[in-house]
Amino acid sequence: MAFCIAPPPTSNNMVKDLQGKFDALVSKDTDAQLEFFLKSFIFELGDSWKEVCDLSKKFKKYLKDQTEKRDLNHVQASNFLQQNGKTRTGLERKKECKDIDLNSDGRICFVEYLLLHYKAMILKSYYNRTEKKMTEDLSNDGVGVTGCGPKLLEELFTLPMGLDPKLVAAIEEFTAKKRAREKKMAKLEKRAEKGGVLGKAARNEIEQMMSQDLTAMNRIELTLNAAKKKGKKESGAAALEKKKKAEEQAKKAKLQAGRNKMAAMAAMFGGAKKAMLNKTKTKVTPNIDSRTKTLGKLKSKGPRQKLKKVSSRPRDGLAPWVKKDIKAKRGSITGDSKKE
To answer: Would the N or C end of the chain have less CB density within 10 A of its end CB?
Structure first.
């Protein structure tokens, strides 16, 4: 399965980056496009990966029959799709070819055709990797499904996580041998068509290649299959599960770190607040009623102020000198009375 090495593109810059990579890929020959497709979807293809190789042969032959060099127009691509077991109505073929023409050049190259041919497989891989809810109906092998070009493009350039270098090397060796063999065969076939001694020699060489090279190709296929089985144990679903667990652990660790930070900040601000309150604590002043008076300045003694309480009871009678004068007068009056 194709699982993400990097997060899926969400910005316009990342989409442009994918489009740039795609433009670079379609500028290469059919075998180079085949090689990249195999690297990206080797696990999804399973044992049917050789069918993709057979399609590349048919595609190149069809190019030659249509006198095309690298790609097909939409009508030609629709016919090739029909010839290879992907039957659709004329309208469905037209819409799907337009949808899969990712560089909008009106042409369908081999990798674009593969995205159309294996559309259902690639979309399932996309939704399995992203864990998003599937919005397309793939019950009929994706027939008639459109509007999924960006998803197919993203999944094409999302190579399997932990892809074994030996598997990559085996794929590259397989396609290199295949390219060299087909190139040599094409030259010999042209020579054989001329006839004569050279033509006969070319036919003999072709027959030898058919027996010898097939044995060599089978050996390479065995190597590729062995590398694929070994790589499957360390890639694909296992790698995705490992990545998910690592992400969950990282998320929990990040959450705990945030909680610890908040607790530390709360403790720090709590201590600072307490210290500030201690410094700015208001001094307690006792209640002073109407009968309490202060003498002089209040002197602080601890948190309480030192107060001096004096009696405010009103004085009895008149002033002392008045009392004395009255007393004297009373005494004189009393004396006069006694004389009489």
So the answer is: C
3 state SS of 302: coil
> Long-range contacts made by residues 65-69, C-beta under 8 angstroms, separation at least 24?
none
Residues 157, 235: Cα–Cα separation, whole Å: 16
Interval 44-88: pLDDT, tens? 888 888 899 899 999 999 999 999 989 999 999 999 999 998 888
Q: What is the pLDDT of residues 123-149, one digit of tens each?
A: 999 999 888 999 999 988 889 999 999
Six-digit token pair at 40?
A: 């990206």
Q: How far is CA 249 from CA 46, 119, 245, in A?
A: 32, 34, 6
Give the start-end residues of each E strand in the chain.
72-73, 107-108, 299-301, 304-306
Question: Coil, strand or helix: which one is 66?
Answer: coil
CA pair distance 35, 38, nearest whole angstrom: 5
> What pTM value is reported for the model?
0.62
